[in-house]
């Protein structure tokens, strides 16, 4: 049974193909009859003779004759494809034959379904396409599937109708009014007929229409990703869409689809706002050039003051030249006419010329398409309407509801916003002001009572804030203000006022108050914490202390805290005489600021003092201090210099851990001690440190410092060290004065603390 059905389908397809071929041959005979002025029989013999002489089949020759006579878009596409050496396609048919057969099938089709099948068979399958869908655009920019081929019937049933606003490839072509090629539809995420989101597939969607109006969309599917196509293929696809437009035009002009023009005029006349009925104006080539004002209703008022008789029958751009401005009225009308998508805006500026002077008018504009016509409605906003609209929007944005209570009749008037504030429906009865306490929190009854006495008894303007209990159980913080209205005899006529929802403001104030309290508490804790840290730091390292003379050395120290009080640092200095009568000199800098840096500084400084009592060398001391830093502190890193001075030999042995080397001033010249290796403390657990040796002489001065003395953000460290050496060559003869001079003329800008040790050999 399946084989029989397939055989019958094949026979029907061959018969249809033969019929379409015969139609082309008959059309070519007609061309020869017209050109040779002969009869049909002689034209048939002439066609056969010419085909034999040219080596072409009669069908191919017929297609060539039709192309020469028509010189239309299909002719141009055929020539372009042949120039690009495109293959003939299935069955050996030429490009011209395929396109003309497709045209014949479309024109001879009785419905859009046959159009889709003919396009796929004759024109699209040779291009590699596997399915086609033909969409009809509705007057509301909806899409209806009117023909398909290559898609299953079940899939077509699912996609029979696409409502307005649903994003699909066909809608994108409709709204953008251009052909859109999708190399892989899966990458866009747009749903469409026959497409699975996880399967790569190429698509092209082409708007089809005439006279500036898009009647539908032709959608062609490929089974895999679509490679870039030459321009001739682009034009072939657009030519096929033009063929489809004729079928869609017949569908759009059926009595069921096209509204009667007289009915549209009756609709315009029944409107309460000014309305214009516009009809498209086409040139000789069928292209849209303008819209003619076919009818204006009785309420139409021209912004320029012209009578209706001068506007009726005029072209839109002639009557209103400013409509041609970019994003102006004409562009909106053209888009609605092309796509069917309605347009509405509350504020559009319409400019008219009065005695060559432009007059701008603000209007609410609505544009809709009805068949081939466009209905344009505008409502000019006068001053009172604009103010009323402004007040309405202000009340909505400010969550303000207004009311008025007539004291003579008892009538109460609320606006819609007040119903929303109370959580009531517009059909509910308004709540009198004197019953306000029944809908408020009991704790606010006293405040509401004072407010009502002020308005009703003292007859003065009053206001209060209260918590409104809504029917849904929620609570709103509301502020109400009211004032009495009197007549000429000082009799109370009404009470008017407004409610405002201040819930957001209330909770914002509560949150801000809590935040302020929390910030104040945090600031107080931070200040106290820094004060205690500074006290600890200053107790260990006073900013200045008198010089110390011991074993032929004059030692002076300075400590300068950071300029910002909250930047408590981790710099330290130390100068102490050990039990071995050697003198320990050290400076260091713990990374970071705050309590952690200060406590880390205390640990390392005291650890170095304790380790130095063992009599170990500076390199060994640095190795041990690195172990302390790595294992006995929490995430602390530091730089340091440790020196041991032997008074008997005047020899200084020193080691460094990532720190700047000491500076020796001798004979008026200043230079850094030779650089030795040593990684900063706390980076790795096991580290070896090199040891340097320097023989000091009488009147030598040695300086150790932390980087806060010289470091700048805009200068390299090498440049800063050069400036320091230049400064040290011009020092005072008194060591303490020299240290003070260094701190005064230091041009560092990092807000870091600074430690400085000066050692003078006597």
Write out key terms for the chains shown.
alpha+beta; Beta-Lactamase; 5 domains; PAS-assoc_C; 762 residues; Serine phosphatase RsbU (Regulator of sigma subunit); flat; six-stranded antiparallel beta sheet; 21 helices
Helix run count: 21
Specify the biggest β-sheet: 6 strands, antiparallel
Strand order within the widest sheet?
A: 3-2-1-6-5-4
Mean pLDDT reading: 80
Give the helix/strand class. alpha+beta
Choose one word for the global shape: flat
Would you report the number of β strands?
27
Computed CA radius of gyration, to the nearest angstrom: 47 Å
Strand content: 25-35%
Remind me, CATH topology of the largest domain?
A: Phosphatase 2c, domain 1
Helical content, roughly?
A: 25-40%
Q: How many domains?
A: 5
Named CATH architecture of the largest domain = 4-Layer Sandwich
Show unreliable segments: 74-92, 254-258
What's the N-to-C terminus distance? Answer: 122 Å
Task: Name the CATH class of the largest domain.
Answer: Alpha Beta
CATH superfamily of the largest domain: PPM-type phosphatase domain
Structure report:
The chain has 762 residues and is an alpha+beta fold. Helix 1 (2-36) packs across helix 2 (40-54), helix 5 (95-108) runs parallel beside helix 9 (231-252) and helix 6 (112-124) packs antiparallel against helix 9. It contains 21 helices and 27 strands. A 6-stranded antiparallel beta sheet has the order 3-2-1-6-5-4. A 6-stranded antiparallel beta sheet has the order 17-18-27-26-23-24, with helices on one face. Strands 8-7-11-10-9 form a 5-stranded antiparallel beta sheet, with helices on both faces. It is flat. The longest helix is centred in the last third of the chain and has 38 residues, at 503-540. Mean pLDDT is 80; it is low at 74-92 and 254-258. The chain starts with a helix and ends with a strand. It folds into 5 domains: 18-108, no CATH class; 110-258, Beta-Lactamase (2-Layer Sandwich), CATH 3.30.450; 261-381, 2-Layer Sandwich (Beta-Lactamase), CATH 3.30.450.20; 398-501, 2-Layer Sandwich (Beta-Lactamase); 541-761, PPM-type phosphatase domain (Phosphatase 2c, domain 1, 4-Layer Sandwich), CATH 3.60.40.10. A hairpin with a 5-residue loop joins strand 14 (462-469) and strand 15 (475-486). This is Serine phosphatase RsbU (Regulator of sigma subunit). It comes from Nonomuraea endophytica. Residues 5-66 form the ANTAR domain. GO terms for molecular function: phosphatase activity; RNA binding. Residues 462-514 form the PAC domain.
């Amino acid at each position: 049974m399946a084989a029989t059905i397939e055989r019958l389908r094949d026979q029907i397809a061959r018969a249809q193909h033969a019929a379409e071929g015969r139609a082309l041959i008959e059309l070519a005979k007609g061309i020869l009859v017209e050109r040779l002025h002969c009869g049909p029989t002689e034209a048939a013999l002439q066609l056969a003779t010419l085909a034999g002489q040219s080596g072409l089949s009669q069908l191919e020759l017929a297609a060539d004759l039709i192309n020469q006579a028509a010189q239309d878009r299909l002719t141009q596409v055929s020539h372009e494809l042949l120039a690009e050496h495109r293959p003939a396609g299935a069955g050996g048919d030429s490009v011209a034959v395929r396109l003309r057969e497709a045209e014949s099938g479309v024109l001879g089709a009785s419905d859009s379904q046959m159009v889709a099948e003919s396009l796929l068979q004759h024109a699209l399958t040779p291009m590699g396409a596997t399915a086609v869908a033909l969409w009809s655009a509705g007057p509301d920019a909806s899409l209806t599937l009117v023909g398909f081929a290559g898609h299953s019937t079940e899939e077509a049933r699912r996609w029979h109708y696409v409502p307005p606003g649903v994003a699909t490839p066909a809608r994108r072509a409709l709204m953008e009014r251009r052909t859109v090629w999708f190399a892989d539809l899966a990458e866009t995420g747009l749903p469409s007929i026959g497409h699975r989101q996880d399967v790569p597939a190429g698509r092209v969607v082409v708007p089809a229409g005439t006279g500036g109006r898009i009647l539908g969309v032709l959608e062609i599917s490929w089974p895999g990703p679509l490679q870039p196509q030459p321009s001739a293929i682009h034009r072939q696809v657009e030519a096929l869409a033009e063929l489809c437009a004729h079928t869609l035009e017949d569908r759009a002009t059926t009595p069921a689809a096209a509204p009667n023009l007289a009915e549209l005029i009756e609709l315009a006349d029944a409107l309460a706002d000014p309305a214009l009925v516009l009809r498209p104006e086409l040139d000789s080539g069928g292209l849209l050039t303008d819209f003619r004002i076919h009818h204006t209703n009785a309420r139409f008022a021209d912004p320029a003051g012209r009578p209706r008789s001068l506007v009726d029958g005029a072209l839109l751009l002639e009557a209103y030249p400013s409509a041609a401005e970019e994003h102006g009225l004409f562009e909106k009308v053209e888009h609605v006419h092309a796509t069917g998508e309605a347009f509405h805006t509350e504020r559009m500026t319409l400019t008219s010329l009065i005695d060559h002077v432009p007059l701008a008018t603000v209007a609410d504009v609505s544009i809709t398409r009805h068949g081939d016509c466009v209905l344009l409605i505008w409502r000019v906003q006068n001053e009172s309407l604009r103010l009323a609209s402004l007040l309405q929007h202000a009340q909505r944005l400010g969550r303000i509801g207004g009311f008025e209570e007539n004291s003579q009749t008892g009538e109460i008037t609320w606006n819609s916003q007040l119903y929303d504030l109370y959580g009531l429906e517009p059909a509910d009865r308004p709540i009198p002001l004197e019953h306000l306490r029944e809908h408020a929190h009991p704790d606010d009854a006293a405040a509401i009572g004072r407010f009502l006495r002020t308005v009703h008894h003292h007859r003065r303007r009053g206001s209060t804030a209260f918590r409104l209990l809504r029917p849904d159980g929620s609570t709103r913080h509301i502020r109400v203000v009211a004032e009495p209205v009197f007549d000429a005899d000082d009799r109370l006529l009404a009470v008017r006022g407004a409610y405002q929802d201040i819930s957001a403001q209330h909770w914002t104030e509560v949150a801000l108050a809590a935040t302020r309290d929390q910030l104040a508490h945090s600031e107080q804790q931070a200040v106290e914490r820094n004060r205690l840290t500074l006290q600890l730091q200053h107790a260990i390292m006073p900013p200045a202390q008198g010089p110390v003379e011991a074993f032929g050395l004059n030692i002076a120290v300075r400590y300068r805290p950071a300029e910002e009080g909250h930047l408590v640092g981790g710099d330290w200095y130390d100068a102490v005489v050990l039990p071995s009568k050697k003198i320990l000199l050290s400076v260091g800098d713990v990374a970071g600021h705050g309590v952690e840096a200060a406590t880390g500084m205390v640990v390392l400084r005291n650890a170095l003092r304790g380790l130095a009592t063992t009599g170990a060398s500076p390199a060994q001391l640095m190795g041990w201090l690195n172990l302390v830093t790595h294992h006995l502190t929490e995430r602390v890193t530091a730089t340091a210099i440790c020196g041991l001075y032997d008074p008997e030999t005047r020899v200084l042995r020193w080691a460094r851990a990532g720190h700047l080397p000491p500076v020796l001033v001798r004979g008026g010249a200043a230079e850094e001690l030779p650089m030795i290796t040593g990684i900063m403390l706390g980076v790795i657990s096991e580290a070896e440190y090199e040891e340097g040796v320097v023989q000091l002489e009488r009147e030598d001065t040695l300086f150790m410092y932390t980087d806060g003395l010289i470091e700048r953000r805009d200068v390299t460290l090498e440049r800063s060290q050069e400036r320091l050496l230049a400064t040290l060559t011009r020092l005072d003869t008194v060591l303490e004065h020299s240290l003070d001079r260094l701190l005064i003329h230091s041009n560092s800008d990092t807000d870091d603390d600074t430690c400085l040790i000066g050692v003078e050999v006597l």
